[in-house]
Amino acid sequence: MLAFVALLVASRLALAALDAFVCYAATFWPPMTEPLSDQPTDPTSALFLAANACVETFFLRMLLTMTMELPAVRLLTPVTFLLITYADDALYAMLHRRMHRNRLLYTLVHKHHHKQTRPHRGYTDAGNEHPLEQVFALGAHLVALTAVHQVVGLDAVAVWTHIGLKAVGSVVNHVNHEVVLSLGFGVVLSARYHRTHHEKGGVNFSQFVPAFG
User: Fold this and answer.
1) pTM, whole model, 2 decimals?
2) Which helix (H) or strand (E) holds 143?
3) Which residues contact 41 (CB under 8 A, 6 or more apart)?
4) Which residues contact 97 (CB under 8 A, 6 or more apart)?
5) Do residues 73 and 156 touch, judged by C-beta distance below 8 A?
6) Cβ atoms within 10 Å of 34's Cβ, excluding its own
7) CB–CB of 154/145 below 8 Å?
8) At what angle do helices 156-172 and 2-26 cross, to 10 degrees?
9) What is the pLDDT of residues 137-167, one digit of tens each?
10) DSSP output for 81-116
């Protein structure tokens, strides 16, 4: 229990620092001109954010255990990183699309995240989702890791570099600036791409690979 609490505190501090840095760096891009929809963090959102912090910590603990048994780095590390990114984003896009098109899932689970139609608070808006949605998304992440492991194997650097990408990308997707970072091979961090999803709902279901829709 003590180890879990220590990991929870350490990961929250690291995430807060990353969030502050990315939100500051985003100001070097032009601001989006649309008026913001500033929804305060209501009690339900605060509860969901706290619950999701615990869910993420369980996930990180699983990854730490798993990667301790993996090679640190390999010649295939860049390929592995890309395959994890593609597999995870493809599965997430499918899940995300289903949560929009299934009325029950949307109403009971995903609708909460869309209360903020023009997100701009970085991780506060990114992590403000129903805990079930968090569980679904991290479950898809584990499936992606398993699939890539079966194809080319895994290594710790590829796994944790992808975690870093997701952390930075999640913040970028929820800032009020026209941030666009193309990492090559179809991987793009774009605040506008995700803002359009929040505004229209039925488009842009992927996070970092626009080709997956």
Assistant:
1) 0.94
2) helix 131-151
3) 49, 124, 128
4) 205, 213
5) yes
6) 12
7) yes
8) 50
9) 999 999 999 999 999 999 999 999 999 999 9
10) HHHHHHHHHHHHHHHHHHHHHSHHHHHHTGGGGGG-
